[in-house]
User: Fold Aspartokinase from Planococcus faecalis.
Amino acid sequence: MKVSKFGGTSVASAQQIKKVAAIVKAEPSRKIVVVSAPGKRFDGDVKMTDLLIHLSAAALRDEPTATPLANVMERYAEIADGLGLDEDIKKIIKTDLLNRLQADKSSPPLFADLIKASGEDNSAKLIAAYLTSIGLAAEYVNPFDAGLFVNDLPERAQALPEAYDNLSDLRNKKTITVFPGFFGYTKRGQLRTFERGGSDITGSILAAAVQAELYENFTDVDCVFAANPRVVENPVEIEQMTYREMRELSYAGFAVLHDEALMPVFKASVPLCIRNTNNPSAPGTMIVAERDHSLRPVTGISADSGFSTLYVSKYLMNREVGFGRRLLQILEDEDISYEHIPSGIDNLSVILRSHQLTVDKEQRIVERVKSELQADDVHIRSDFSMIVLVGEGMNNQKGLTARAANAFARTGVNIEMINQGSSEVSLVFGILKEDEQKILNELYKEFFEPALVH
Ligand code: ASP
Assistant:
């Protein structure tokens, strides 16, 4: 049995949903189909989830909802008409939305979750209706009825352990299950969504719960590439990689899969395949527990901007017991998590995601580190990017860092920070954002086209 998840672009229009149906029909083992809300049909289009966010914002501000609601309904109507479905499904969706808009608004995040999740929920109902209309035995399954229970956190819920047990019953269903992604319910029956992009997580949870032979994640690219194809010309396709490699790559910019989506399938040892709805004959990228990595030490190179550095220096810092703890406590008080802490003898830098900082927070942090820790110098810079070399084969590879450093030297890009995790699956370089594209291309040449540089 396979669990097949179709992302937003795969269900964005009637034409796309027909492709989904053909894929489902092609293999009887595709018994569980997880769907996103309709995504973008073309560059510049608006995703259904964003239309729904506008709708809930208008309702929460007590503004008229007729226009944002009409925008949402127009997308569904276009899809339903294009699929030749009768009026019933449009009525079901409209009634559902009107009911949701009547819900309690005393907690804005909970109300917003309820409205946002309708995108996936109605997408699943619509796709189930279409599959049925073309003669497949398919059935919409509601996450509450199936027992997808989650914790209380709005907008970033996480599945409870018992959800897996409950969902394992889906194995026994004779019909094709069409399951909405992106949300679950608390045990009291309140809806909560996962983070944005969270339909990937639903698919992974279901694949783990039913012990699927494969979790297929259908999107709009043929495979995962070894570097961002918008920066590097014709990067190589990754045929196979490990869960750890995918995790490291998605950390810094490989946005193919939500990063919480790996854990459930990883724990259950279910292989995952990234595939293209628009080109189903392409084999895609397989993500597995182990692979032969003798051929190439580096599997992929990712790059991501939006990092800030809190730089702290203090004479004799290394001898001061508890310095690091007190510094991190200040960050914790501001509800900030950190990414890396490279350190010297009398100084250290804490690297953070910039979106967590505000001007006020920055000021408070700098003042507190100066006054409470009596640091000599404290400042924050916020124009950093991280470049990450990823590969299981990097472990114990002599000369690998030298090769990377040579690539930096050739471009004249300064390395602001180097961090090699103890697993040696990744090597992280902190650089200024302006240097990102230049060094990504040079590192790519070094590790994937060495003949061009040596
Ligand atoms: N529709 C949601 C989003 O746009 C979830 C998803 O597609 O995975 O974030």
